[in-house]
Amino acid sequence: MSDWTARLPEAAQEFIEGRKLDEVECLVADLAGVARGKAMPASKFARQSHFYLPNSIFLQTITGDWADSDNSFTEPDLILTPDFSTATAAPWTADWTLQVIHDISDQNGEPAGMAPRNVLKRVVDLYKKKGWKPVVAPEMEFFLVARNIDPNQPIEPPMGRSGRRAAARQAYSMSAVDEYGPVIDDIYDFAEAQGLEIDGILQEGGAGQIEMNLRHGDPVKLADEIFYFKRMIREAALRHDCFATFMAKPIQDEPGSAMHIHHSVIDTKTGRNIFSATDGTETAAFFHFIAGMQNHLPSVIALLAPYVNSYRRYVPDFAAPINLEWGRDNRTTGIRVPISDPESRRVENRLAGMDCNPYLGIAASLACGYLGLLDEKEPAQAFTGDAYRTETDIPRGIASALDIFNEATVMHEVLGEEFCSTYATVKELENREFLQVISPWEREHLLLNV
Q: How would DSSP label each residue in 42-80?
C-alpha cells in the first residue's frame, strides 16, 4: 500500500484492499452543490500534491451561463488540495474508483472565499472562537420519479414492483417503501461501501417521496456526506430505470422536499449542551439561538431556497413552513423544538429545501443561530396552535429573497463578503434567465384570451 492510501479512511481502504485502484475523482462542490473537478488515473493522483481549477467554476449558473465578476475575464486558478479524510468509494462505476473532496485556496494559500465548503468552515470557526462546537443532524427528503427526458412533460411517480405507479398520501407506509425496494437496497449497499451511515429511511407524504435521516455530528462532515449521498442516490435510481430528484417541488399538488436541520451547540470546555442547564432546564442560550433564527432567517432564505421552484414548496398545509414561529413539537412552525432529553435538546430549522447546497444551507442556518447567541435577544412566545393560519413571514420569491440578502450586512460579515457578492450575482443572472421563459400556463390561458 502506497503512502497516500495509508491516509484513507477505513471504509476506503477496505474498498480497494486486494484490488488495483484505477481512478480517483477529485471533487469540489460549486454554488449549486454540483460536483466539479477532474478524474485521473490513480497512478497520476499518487504523484501530485494538488491541482488547479479556474475560479469561474463558482460563477456558473445552474443553466450553464457565466456571471461576471471583477476578475472573471482572466479566470485565475484556484489551488485544490485533497482532504484525505473525505476519500470514499464510487461503487457504481465500472472500475475501482475513489472520490476525494478537495480543499480550495487562492494562490496566496488563503481559503477561497467563494467556495461553499469554505463558507461553512468559516461559520464553524466563528463558533470555535467563542468556545462552542456546533452539532447538526440533517434530514434528506427526495423523490424517485419516472424517467423524464422531455422537460415539457410533467413529472410522474415511478412504477413500483406491483406494476402500478407509486401512490401519494402513504406517509410511513412500509409497503410503499417496498414498492421501490431495489433502489433502497442499492442505496444501503452503496452507503456501506462508502462508509456512510444512514440513521433511517421512511416513506414521506408524496408519491415516491422518501426521507432519509443522518446521525448528528460535525457540520462540515455531514455536509460532505449529503454531497456524496445526493450523487449516490441518483446513481442508485438510474440502475432501476428511474430518476432521483432533489428539486424542492417536482410534482404539482404533491408536498415538496425539505432538508430539515437540527442544531445543538456544545461548550468545548465542559462538553455540555449549552441549551440545557445542569438541572436540565432550558438556558438563556437556547432562547437566544431561537431568536437568532427568527430575526435572521429572512436574510438567508435566498440560500435555503435558491431557485424559482423552491418557493413552490412554501404552501400552507403541505408540510412546509411559511412562517418564523417557533413551537415545541409543532410541525406547522418554521422553527421546531423536538421532544428530547436535556443532553440532546436541539432546535430544528424546517425552512431549508433539499435543493439547497448542503454546505450553504447548513452554514446559513448556523449563522442565524450564531448571531442570535451574540445578540442575546428573546424570541417571540412559543406558538401552540396551527401556525399555517398565521401571516407569511418569509420572502415569496427568489427576487425578494435576494433583495433582503443583499441588504443583510451583518450576515455578510459572517458568511464572507466575497461569497455573498458572488452568490447574489449568480442568482440574479439565473432569475433573469428564468424570466425569459414562457410557461405552458401562459400559452394555455393567455395566447387566445387576452
A: HHHHHH-S-EEEEGGGGSB-TTS-B---TTTTT--EEEE
Contacts of residue 212, defined as CB under 8 A and 6 or more positions apart, other chains included, come to 139, 140, 141, 142, 187, 198, 200, 201, 229
- Return d(Cα 132, Cα 150) in angstroms, integer: 49
Quote the CA–CA distance of 339 and 337 in Å, as a whole number: 7
Please state the length of the chain: 450
Structure confidence at residue 285 (pLDDT)? 98
Question: 82 pairs with which residues across the strands?
Answer: 102
**Model confidence over 131-161: pLDDT tens digits?**
999 999 999 999 999 999 998 899 998 888 8
397, 308 in Cβ contact below 8 A?
yes
Q: Which residue's C-alpha cell is 458572488?
A: 422
For residue 62, the model assigns a pLDDT of 95
Low-confidence ranges of the chain (pLDDT < 50): 1
Q: From residue 80, how far is each of 104, 295, 417, 418 by CA, in Å?
A: 5, 36, 21, 19
Express each pLDDT in 344-362 by its tens digit: 999 999 999 999 999 999 9
Please, which residues have CB within 8 angstroms of residue 289's CB and are 6 or more apart in sequence? Answer: 263, 265, 275, 347, 369, 372, 373
Q: What are phi and psi of 411, to 5 degrees?
A: -65, -35
**Nearest-angstrom CA–CA distance, 435 and 163:** 39
In the chain the domains, ranked by start, together with CATH numbers, are 5-112 (3.10.20.70), 123-443 (3.30.590.10)
CB of 12 closer than 8 Å to CB of 88: yes
Predicted local confidence at residue 270, as pLDDT: 96
| Cell numbers representing residue 187 in the block | 442505496
Q: How far apart are alpha carbons 78 and 330 in whole angstroms?
A: 45
Cell numbers 476506503 correspond to 12
How much is the pTM?
0.95
Cell readout for 89 is 468509494
Spatial distance between the Cα atoms of 293 and 313, rounded to a whole number of angstroms: 20
* Residue 316 identity: P
With contact defined as beta carbons under 8 Å apart, do 86 and 76 qualify? no
Nearest C-alpha neighbor of 203 from the set 226, 225, 224, 183: 183
DSSP annotation string for 394-414: S-SSHHHHHHHHHH-HHHHHH
Query: Which triple of cell numbers denotes residue 59?
Result: 460563477
Going by the DSSP 8-state scheme, the letter that residue 60 receives in this structure is B
**What's the CA gap between 320 and 337, in Å, rounded?**
16
